[in-house]
């Protein structure tokens, strides 16, 4: 992809994420294009519909998770970093999840993205199992579920000491369920 085309595509993804977060999933696509500084034709050359635009946003969020888990740190710190880095994506997903009606092809893409997230989190689960931090049945998919649970709680909180305490409390509860018995 040419550099200028990639810049326009990235601008569309950023504009869509901001627009969906502010106004919901039903925001007119023309407004997203205008916010990105491109025409409607550019939007449709890059994304055939609203769902493929949402998929691109979430692919970017999984990319962020992948970068964050590349650091070999303990499970608790990994989850804290992932929650903090993924707050925007989690809030956005919660905002549009109720409104999205994906067709069969897009639903398959959403499911594949969930499977990719599980694969990205598998090394974190493997390290945690090896350290005795989690039960033997905890894998990337279950860590993803725990991450979504904690992130769903956290996305409404503001940064700072109070938000950090709530995050720590939520992780304590989650870790009680993940630890070996």
In CATH, the architecture of the largest domain is Orthogonal Bundle
The CATH homologous superfamily of the largest domain is called Tetracycline Repressor, domain 2
The CATH first-level class of the largest domain comes to Mainly Alpha
Extended strand count? 0
What's the N-to-C terminus distance?
Answer: 51 Å
Q: What is the H-and-E element order?
A: HHHHHHHHH
Number of domains: 2
Major sheet description: none
Percent of residues in helical segments? over 70%
Low-confidence runs (pLDDT<50, min 5 residues)? none
- Helix/strand-derived category reads mainly alpha
What is the general shape?
elongated
> How confident is the prediction overall: mean pLDDT?
84
- CATH names the topology of the largest domain as Tetracycline Repressor, domain 2
Fraction of residues in β-strands? under 5%
Notes on the structure:
- The protein has 181 residues and is mostly helical.
- It has 2 domains: 47 residues, Orthogonal Bundle (Arc Repressor Mutant, subunit A); 130 residues, Tetracycline Repressor, domain 2 (Orthogonal Bundle).
- 76% of the residues lie in helices and 0% in strands.
- The radius of gyration is 18 Å and the shape is elongated.
- It starts with a helix and ends with a helix.
- The model has no long low-confidence stretch (mean pLDDT 84).
